Amino acid sequence: MIKILTIIGARPQIIKAAALNRAIKNGFSDKIEEKILHTGQHYDENMSEVFFREIGIPTPHFNLNIGSGRHGEQTARMIMGIEQVLTDEKFDAVVVFGDTNSTLAGAVTASKIHIPIVHIEAGLRSFNMAMPEEINRVLTDHLADYLFCPTYAAVRNLKQEGITKGVVHTGDVMYDAALTFGKIAEQTSTILASLQLEAKQFYLCTVHRAENTDNRERLTQIVQALVEVARSDCPVILPLHPRTKKYLATWQLYSTIESNKAFKLIEPVDYLDMIMLEKQAKTILTDSGGVQKEAYFHRTPCITLRDETEWVETLESGWNQLAGYRKEHILFCLANKTKKTEIEEYGDGHAANKIIQALLK
After folding, report:
1. Concatenated DSSP letters of 89-123
2. How is residue 46 annotated by DSSP?
3. What digits encode the pLDDT tens for the residues 62-87?
C-alpha cells in the first residue's frame, strides 16, 4: 500500500485532484491510500470549498487556511504547515499539481525531508520568468522525482533542461475532468436560464492574472475592448475574480463598464456552471491557462489575453489565438476566423489512470 499526500490550494488543482481521486476510488483503493491537504490559497467560498461538494472530492484531511498574502509570506506559511503534516505522519510521496505557490511549497518541503515528489502537469513553459507561475513550475520540475506531462511539448521542454528521468507523457487530467463533469453540467446547470442567455450568443471572459489586473493600461484596454464588443444580442459575461474586482475599482473602470449594459459582471460561478458557460459561449476570452484548455475540450474558440501561452498546441490547432492586452489586437482576433484541427496529445480521458499505474510500477 502506497500512502500519498495530495496538496491543493487553488480552483484548478481541486479539479485535477478530483480526477486523480476518482481514479483511485474506481480501481486502486486497495493499492493507494490518499490524504488531501488544502493550503487555503484560495479562500473565497465560490472559488474553493463549494467545489468539494460539487465534484465529489473528499473533504481535505488537513486545511492550513493560509489565505492571501505576498508571495514570500504566503509560500513560507505553507511550507511551515506542510512540514508539520509531513513530520507528524509518514507518507511515501507528495503529489503537487501545476504552478501555484501551493505547488512550490509542497515541492520544497518534501525535497527538504527527502520524500519523493510527484508533479502532475509537469514541463509546461511560457518562457516568461516575470510570471510567478513560471518560476513555480520550473523550480518544481527540477525538484520532482516523477514528472507527468500533459503534452509532448512539455516532455521536450524538460529534456532541453536536462530532465529525462521519471518523465512520462500521460495526457491531461483536466481532460478527464472535462469529460466527466461536462455530462453532469448538461444535466444539472441552470446558469443559462438564470442569466437569460442563448447558447452560442454570448462571450465569456475571465481575467485574474496579476500581469493584467495590477497593470492599469492592460486592464483598461481589455475592458475597453469588451465594452466595444458587447451587444444586446451577444453580451459579454465576466465572472469576477476577487483580484479583478479590486482593481476595477482601483483603476476606476466601473463607469466604463456601466456605459454598456450588455457587458455583465457576475459573481464567481461554481464549477458546473462554469463548464456550461464554457460549452455554450460563442467565444471565450481569458488569461487563464486552465480555461484555454477547457475551451478546446468543449470545442469553443478561445482568445488568450496574454503575450504567451504554455499551451502552444491550442494555438497550433487554431482553437486559440494570442491577443495580448491591446484593444485593437483583441478585436482583430475576434474577427479572425482560423482553421481548426484536433489535438491528440491530451489523451483519451484516462490520464489519471495512467499516472497511478506509472506510480505503482
Report:
1. S--SEEEEETTSHHHHHHHHHHHHTT--EEEETTT
2. G
3. 999 887 778 899 999 999 999 999 99
95 - beta bridge partners?
6, 118
Per-residue three-class SS string for 133-201: HHHHHHHHHHHCCEEEECCHHHHHHHHHCCCCCCEEECCCHHHHHHHHHHHHHHHHCCHHHHCCCCCCC
The residue from 208, 241, 329, 350 that is catalytic is 208
Residue 306: C-alpha distances to residues 68, 110, 241, 324, 340 (Å): 23, 32, 17, 4, 21
- Using CA atoms, how far apart are residues 4 and 256, in angstroms rounded to an integer? 49
Pair 149, 123: CB distance under 8 Å: yes
- Per the DSSP assignment, residues forming a β-bridge with 264 are 237
**Average pLDDT taken over every residue of the chain:** 94
The two domains 2-171+346-360 and 191-335 share their CATH topology (first three levels equal): yes
Assign 213 a pLDDT band (cuts: 50, 70, 90).
very high
Report in angstroms the alpha-carbon separations of 111 from 35, 148, 167, 186: 19, 18, 17, 42
Average pLDDT score over residue span 326-346: 96
Tell me the mean pLDDT in the region 297-317.
Answer: 97
Contact 114, 91 (CB under 8 A): no
pTM for the predicted model, two decimal places: 0.89
> Backbone phi, then psi, for 322, in 5-degree steps?
-90, 120
Average pLDDT value for residue range 336-348: 95
**Topology of the domain comprising 2-171+346-360:** Rossmann fold (3.40.50)
Give the span between the Cα atoms of 110 and 222, in whole angstroms. Answer: 40
Q: Does residue 334 contact residue 283 with C-beta atoms inside 8 Å?
A: yes
Q: What is the pLDDT of residue 196?
A: 97
Fold annotation for 191-335: Rossmann fold (3.40.50)
pLDDT for the residue numbered 44: 54
Judge whether 19 and 177 are in contact, CB under 8 Å. Answer: yes
Specify the DSSP class assigned to residue 225.
H
The domain ranges of the chain are 2-171+346-360, 191-335
Q: Is 208 a catalytic residue?
A: yes
Per-residue pLDDT band for 114 (boundaries 50, 70, 90) equals very high
